[in-house]
Amino acid sequence: MFSNLRFLRRVATAALAAAIAGGAALASPLQDQGWLTSWMASQQPVWQPDALPLPAGVPSVMTDQTVRQVVRLSVGGQRLRVVLSNPYGRQPVVIGAAQLARHAGGGRIDLAGSRAVTFGGKATVTLPAGQSVASDAIALDTPALAELALSLYLPQRTAIESFHWDGRQTAWLTAGNATAQAMLAAPQVFSARVLLSEVQVEAPAGAGAVVAIGDSITEGNGSTPDANRRWPDFLAQRLASDGVAVLNAGISGGRLLRDGMGVSALARLDRDVLSQAHVRTVIAAIGINDIAWPGSTFAPHDPVPQAAELIEGYRRLIARAHARGVRVIGATITPFAGALRDTPIRGYDSPGKEAVRLAVNDWIRHGGAFDAVVDFDAAVRDPARPQALQPAFDSGDHLHPGDAGYRAMAARFDLSLPALGGQSRSGAPGGNSGR
């Protein structure tokens, strides 16, 4: 049924290999010390309709159309720039015009707070296949936690081959060049993100970024769309006054060891985390799909991994981050008893998978490998039935927390940790403070 998942993996792996050969996508030269990424969306290859039991939910082609997308910054700034990316594209993409503006709600923008975006002084730019481009600096004084809208005009037939699947944010698509219009006429709507991968601010003194690499629970599935209630959003609110950017590198269906609805966390660690300028810390909140996908509708023929396999994967991630001077916070895996049982997905949970989760969580808490640990499991589990989410925190599918659950997860972070910019402990990478 899902033989094309292997095709998806081959496409993703080949695209990354091509990017490395071309010196492009993994360690982007766009990410220099003068800029701090304040918002990001990790990129995935768009899958074929029969490759996964989930629709891609994005138009396959856009022609002579404007797409408007909303982001919420973590850190603010007086000058910004946007980064457009097409890492899995096989053809160049022509941007005919672009406009960055303050978001005015729904599909509207504030024309008084709107600026034309240029690239090398020009209104148009060609985004090469497999690469990224950064705009010129945009003078638009923007506070922390502000929402912005980027409008891109695509004058030519543009195949959408790179995207971020579950943006939890409405995007609008309309005919013609409407980049400077306050409201788009008769737009189509979807929730994926296309071409836009980062919004950066001019780096303030002492700039720092924390990157959360994870799966749909980090991406925010189950939270209220258009409301910025993912756990990294709540953490960004807690850290806003400290000038620490919180970047969400979650991908729904993401796994630590193997490709899923995107390449594995180990494969994208350099691109999404370690190449970021000013990155201080990575929060590793991943592993649930490594345990639960095997034997399910997603990967019916894969064996459930042993805890030791995941632990070795975490050790590899930690070693690579430490080699770059980046601290690592390990997040325990949240409960998933009964997950997706009322959906077409079958076999996601089992007693054997629960045993692996418990063993991995025990190692995360007590293995001493992480610089700090955040106990998401303890934050959202049901005290009466710890293999399941607490009902008040359950979005309804018994896998993803809802808004209240994500808020509780963000509240588990000790903001005094050096890994989050706190000053209460010294602790170089390799320590085990903050549990």
Automatic annotation (TrEMBL):
Pfam families associated with the record: Lipase_GDSL_2
Keyword Hydrolase found: yes
Keywords (A to Z) from UniProt: Hydrolase, Plasmid, Signal
One example GO MF annotation: hydrolase activity, acting on ester bonds
Sequence intervals crossing the membrane: none
Region forming the signal peptide: 1-27
Entry EC number(s): 3.1.-.-
Enzyme class, first EC level, given as a word: hydrolase
Gene3D superfamilies in the cross-refs: SGNH hydrolase
CDD domains (UniProt xref): XynE_like
Keyword Transport part of the UniProt annotation: no
Top-rank taxon, per record: Bacteria
Domain SGNH hydrolase-type esterase: 212-408
PANTHER family linked to this entry: GDSL-LIKE LIPASE/ACYLHYDROLASE, PUTATIVE (AFU_ORTHOLOGUE AFUA_2G00820)-RELATED, GDSL-LIKE LIPASE_ACYLHYDROLASE, PUTATIVE (AFU_ORTHOLOGUE AFUA_2G00820)-RELATED
Protein name: Lysophospholipase L1
Species this chain originates from: Cupriavidus neocaledonicus
Phylogenetic placement of the source organism: Bacteria, Pseudomonadati, Pseudomonadota, Betaproteobacteria, Burkholderiales
